[in-house]
Amino acid sequence: MTKEYLLSKTLYGVDIIQHLIRKEFPDFVMRVSGTDCGQCPDPVWADGSIIEVTMDRIPVEGRRLPDYKARFHYPDGQLLDGDALALATAYYHERGEDLAQEQLIARLAEELYIKEPPKPFFHEEEPEQPETQEPAKPTLPPCPRMSFFRRPIRNTRPCRDASPQDIFKYVTSDYAKAHTEHLRTLKDSKVRSRYKAEHFDYVTPGGLFRSRKESDLIQASGYMVIDFDHISDPDGLVLLLANEENFETVLAFRSPSGDGVKWFVNLPVGQTKPDGTPFTYGEFFTILSNYVRQAYGYEADPSGKDICRACFLPYDPDAFLNPFFIDDDFDYDISRFLNGSAE
Question: Structural domain of residue 261, as residue ranges?
Answer without folding.
Answer: 146-339
